[in-house]
Amino acid sequence: MPNPSLLTVLAKAFLAGAPAAEQVVARARRTLGKPWRWLRPLAQRYTKAFAGRTRPRHRDVVRFLRRDAGFGRARSKYFQELAVEQWLTESQQMQPVAAAETWDVPTIESVAALADWFRLSPGELEWFADVKGLVNRRKDRPRLAHYHYRVLAKLSGSIRLIEAPKPRLKELQRQILALILDEIPLHSAVHGFRKGRSIKTFIAPHVSQRVVLRMDLRDFFPSISGARIQTFFRTVGYPESVADLLGGICTNAVPRSAWREPALDADPTQLREARVLYSRPHLPQGAPTSPALANLCGYRVDCRLAGLAKSAGAEYTRYADDLAFSGGEAFERCVDRFSTHAAAILREEGFTVHHRKTRIMRQGVRQHLAGLVANQRVNVMRVDFDRLKATLTNCVRRGQDSQNRNAHSNFRSHLDGRVGFVEMINPAKGERLRSLFERIEWP
C-alpha cells in the first residue's frame, strides 16, 4: 500500500493552482523533489479527467490517484524512492469554471482570508459555519443555535418550516448576498427574487396564449442540499475549504427540538417526512441568501427547460417554485407529453414536481398563475379584488378594528401593502381601492 500522506500531499499539489498540465507537473515535481518521467502523463490524465468540470474536492483527486493505472505502476516500481520532499504551503488559487471567469466576485483563497473578509476570527468563522452540525444540534445549550424556528401546517396537510437566522448570522449571509451572489448573472427565465423583475413580468409572456401549463415544485428550498451549495461555491472558483465554510453559513440542518409544537395540527406522516427532509443540510427558508442561491442552483434546469420549451414552440418563465409554459397550436398539441418530459428533467436535476398542482389551461377557462389571471391581460382574480374591496368598505363604515380578524400588529401597513399590490397589477382597480383606503379613520 502507498504511504497515505503521499497521496494526500500529491492531491493538494494538483489542486493548489491552475489546472493546466504543465503547472500541475511543476507543483508535483516540487512536492516529490524529482522530475519523474511518469508525472507529465499523469498530469495530462488528471487534467483530462476534470476538464470543464467544477473544481474537484480533495477526496476526488485522491480517488483519481488511487485508481490511475499508470500511477499505480509507478508507485509499485519506485515504492522505496517515492517520498514527500517539500510540502506546498501556499494557499490554493481561485479556479472558476470557464463561465465564471468574468464574474466580479472577491478573491478568497484560504480560511484565514475568509475570516478576515467577514472580520471574524477563524474560530468564530467555524462556529457560524457549523459545517459538522455540532452547534445547532446541542440540546444542553439551545441558545447557541443559529436559527429561530416556526412550524406551519398548510391547508394541503404538508409542512412548512420557517428558519429565521439570528442577527449576527444574518449579517454574514447578507454580506455573501451583496458581494458574491448579486454579482453572478441569472438565467433570463428567472423572475422571482430578482431586481427589475416581479410576479407581473413572470406572467406577462403567457398572456393571451392558446394554452398555459403551470407546474409547481415541492419543498423547493429544503430540496436544495448543503452539498449542492458547496459545489456551487467551488464552481465560482473558491477552494474546497472556503467553499465548505461559505456553504455552511448559507445552509442549515434542523434539530429535533425545533419540532416541539404541541398546538401543531398536522398529519403525522407529513410531519415525520418533514423532520427527515429538514434534518439534512439545506437552504433555510428565511435566510436572505436562500432565494438567490436557489435561483443560481437552478441555472442548469432553467437552461434545459428553456431549451425544451423552445423546441416545442413555447415560452418558459420561473418564479421561485412556480413554473409556467405557454404557446400556440403547436404547443397545445403536445402539451401533455411536454409536461411529462419537463417533470423528468426536474427529477433528474434533483427537484420534485407537485403533480396535484400541475394544470393545463386552455382558452375558454381562467388561466391563472401565481394567484393572477393571464387570459387577456395580467389581472388580479375577481374574488380577491371583491374580498379586499369589501374589507376596505367595512373599515370605512364600521371601523378598522372590526376587520382585523387575524390580529395583525400593524393592520394599516397590511392593508396598504395589499392595495399597493393591486395598483401594481391593475392601476385602474388599484385607484378605486386606494380611494377607499384613504377614507378609513385610523387611531
Give a short overview.
By secondary structure, the chain is an alpha+beta fold. 47% of the residues lie in helices and 10% in strands.
Radius of gyration: 27 Å
Tally of DSSP helical segments: 18
Q: What is the element string, with H for helices and E for strands? A: HHHHHHHEEHHEHHHHHEEHEEEEEHHH
How many strands in all?
Answer: 10
Shape category: elongated
Distance between the termini: 81 Å
Biggest sheet: strands, sense, closure?
5 strands, antiparallel
Helix content: 40-55%
Which structural class should the secondary elements be placed in? alpha+beta
Average pLDDT: 90
Describe what this molecule looks like in 3D.
47% of the residues lie in helices and 10% in strands. It has 443 residues and is of the alpha+beta class. The strands form three sheets. Strands 3, 4, 5, 6 and 7 form a five-stranded antiparallel sheet that branches. Strands 8-9-10 form a three-stranded antiparallel sheet. It has a two-stranded antiparallel sheet with strand order 1-2. Helix 1 runs antiparallel to helix 2, helix 1 packs across helix 4 and helix 2 packs across helix 3. The radius of gyration is 27 Å and the shape is elongated. The chain starts with a helix and ends in a 6-residue tail after the last helix. The mean pLDDT is 90.
Features:
single chain; 443 residues; alpha+beta; 5-stranded antiparallel beta sheet; 3-stranded antiparallel beta sheet; 18 helices; 47% helix
